[in-house]
Amino acid sequence: MTQLDSDQKAADDAPKLGRRRDPAKDQQILDAAVDVLAETGFDGMTIDMVAARAGAGKATVYRRWASKNELVLDAVACLKKTDLDSMPIPDTGTLRGDLVAMIRPPTIDDAERKLKVMAGLASMLSSAPDLAEAANEAIVEPRARINRMLLNRAVERGEISADVDIQLVSLISPSMVAYHSLIQRKPVDREFLITVIDGVILPAVGLRPAPAR
Amino acid sequence: MTQLDSDQKAADDAPKLGRRRDPAKDQQILDAAVDVLAETGFDGMTIDMVAARAGAGKATVYRRWASKNELVLDAVACLKKTDLDSMPIPDTGTLRGDLVAMIRPPTIDDAERKLKVMAGLASMLSSAPDLAEAANEAIVEPRARINRMLLNRAVERGEISADVDIQLVSLISPSMVAYHSLIQRKPVDREFLITVIDGVILPAVGLRPAPAR
DNA sequence: TCTATCCGGAACTGCAGAGTTCCGTATATG
DNA sequence: CATATACGGAACTCTGCAGTTCCGGATAGA
């Protein structure tokens, strides 16, 4: 989309002769951009940093993206694919079981990395709607979508009432984790996540913390 | 503290003759800094912008603060005093009544302004611990403190159980409001706040949404 | 092997903002 | 009224980064 090479027919622009553009380099640069973004934020990020981390030259970056803004937009969008949501979604038979099963190191690390990216973009979101949408779609939505799925299944099997505001409840953990991590700057560990599940989410859907006691 | 003029004995450094430094100007500059911070974020903020908005010269700003960083630190800290927490805290007799009574235009506007400041600082928080602490103390804590007070009163009058995790519950609304406003970029209106109170907070402390039905 | 193309890297321009210096003016004190 | 000081504003330096250009070397196809 924003990338320079995805021209009209996406073909025929490949050279008949000589060296071809390395497609793997694109991903290396995007990954490096996300790393730098997470570490320094949008304004702290320089193209030189990204190029150096990707083992590329600055010119190579600009051969593929027209500007820093477009690179960042693509890098954020690429987080979507990097997402761990392609992993199997737990189905333990109880809502609490499913929610607890979601607490795993790779899931937590992925979340923390994405939160850092979001923090690095925070000041831009109000002035760059397309970036805000990309960030929302790549960072916020995937996790909320999983939560909605788990909640819907709980409704279907009669575990919780159909009156529950699933949209609202699905945002409890993303909200509280983001606040805990970004603003309060405390580590997102298993204990905190369990506390949120048992102390907020389950009561909100009308369940007791301990499922069978 | 960070201000240049608060020297050793805080006295005798006033000139015997001639014009005195205008103390009101300090506050005008700090207010302007907060405004610009909320609108453009830390990196987008320039000293010229702040000076212009305060009706001052850039030199005047640097006569009072040694750097942009120190100005911002003081500006954030000054949000604490600007806070609306000097207003009367509601006491309606029920937790729900108190929470709903907190929903008032000045309270909401104050919160949104502070959230914008927090968004503008977000990318710096991980690399500037003192700024992070100042922001937390000026923006996060005052509101959480009120919530804790309301919850403690509810415990004292026997409305809710003493087992409730007050620390956790007091952070539900700040977290969800911040997420709603900053990340999802939706307006923080009365309807949303009521939904959070009735759909999350009250269930979390073991109360039904409609108190007397 | 030849050649068109891409590569990394370095040197370059242009600009914007932090921080400084200076000046003419305003003002409170004596 | 005289004077010492703070003021707003403009001009200045310096630094860092976005984006560009150029080059010698690497590489894949013909």
Kindly report the CATH topology of the largest domain in chain A. Tetracycline Repressor, domain 2
Classify the beta-strand content of chain A into a percent band.
under 5%
> What multimeric state do the chains show?
homodimer
CATH architecture of the largest domain in chain A: Orthogonal Bundle
Largest interface: A-B, 42 and 42 residues
Reported for the largest beta sheet of chain A, the result is:
none
Order of helices and strands of chain A: HHHHHHHHHH
- Looking at CATH, the homologous superfamily of the largest domain in chain A is Tetracycline Repressor, domain 2
Structure overview:
- 2 copies of one chain form a homodimer.
- Chain A is an all-alpha fold and 213 residues long.
- Chain A folds into 2 domains: 23-80, Arc Repressor Mutant, subunit A; 84-204, Orthogonal Bundle (Tetracycline Repressor, domain 2), CATH 1.10.357.
- Chain A is 63% helix and 0% strand.
- Chain A contains 10 helices and no strands.
- The first copy, chain A, has helices spanning 23-44, 47-54, 58-64, 68-82, 95-101, 105-121, 129-156, 166-169, 172-183, 190-204.
- The termini of chain A are far apart.
- The relative contact order of chain A is 0.11.
- The interface between A and B is large, with 42 and 42 residues.
- Chain A binds a DNA duplex (30 and 30 nucleotides) through residues 15-22, 25, 46-48, 51, 55-60, 62-63, 67-68.
